[in-house]
Specification:
Blueprint lengths: L10 H11 L3 H14 L6 E2 L1 H5 L2 H5 L3 H7 L8 E2 H8 L7 H4 L12 H12 L6 E3 H12 L5 H15 L6 E3 H7 L5 H4 L7
Antiparallel strand pairs: 1-2, 3-4
């Protein structure tokens, strides 16, 4: 196990993370401090149990789904860079980013990437569509036992019926985008303290 001092961020790492995520130098150093405080094993990575100690995630009904988003498939640890890439989805979009170079790749916090992140929270089996069963599972996570299974089924059926354009009884990412085109994703999927 290395000491915290040996795992401090180098200036070139900060610059690379700034480019990749859009976070400022001070935001990166502040989030690095938070990352290292969560890293109880002091090994430069976080596991699921480290995230489960975050009170806001522990009480969030989608906490486990959000935690899973930090881990690439098959991985059980995330390093600081991966941590920052996931957090970047929640970074507010700055006015100067809205008119960016059209040839550059989409920033992680773009509307389309925020929507993809949200879509993946619902797509439990990662087959690029949201089935009725997946929608029901997520709804159950969000409302617990406050609504009957019959009511949840009705909500899921109505949601699929409204969103499904190709008649496959599921919601594709394009259908998901269409349903949410009038929703202020920027406001709903941004964490203001990251501003």
């Amino acid at each position: 196990m290395g000491s915290r001092a040996s795992s401090l961020l180098r200036e070139e790492e900060i610059e690379e993370i700034k480019k990749e995520t859009g976070f400022s130098h001070s935001q990166i150093t502040r989030l690095y401090s938070r990352f290292t405080s969560l890293d109880k094993g002091e090994n430069g990575t976080l596991g699921r149990e480290d995230f489960q100690r975050i009170p806001e995630l522990a009480i969030n009904p989608l906490g486990d789904r959000i935690i899973n988003a930090f881990f690439p498939e098959g991985e059980d640890q995330v390093n600081f860079r991966g941590f920052m890439r996931t957090l970047a989805h929640f970074r507010p979009i700055e006015d100067n980013e809205k008119n960016k170079d059209p040839t550059a790749s989409e920033p992680l916090n773009s509307r389309i990437n925020k929507l993809l992140f949200a879509f993946q929270l619902y797509d439990l089996d990662r087959d690029d569509k949201i089935s009725r069963d997946e929608l029901l599972q997520v709804l159950r996570m969000m409302v617990g036992v406050n609504i009957s299974d019959e009511q949840l089924g009705s909500i899921a059926d109505r949601t699929i019926q409204e969103a499904d354009q190709n008649g496959d009884n599921s919601i594709s990412f394009n259908e998901f985008i269409k349903v949410l085109e009038k929703v202020d994703v920027e406001q709903k999927m941004s964490i203001r303290f990251l501003h």
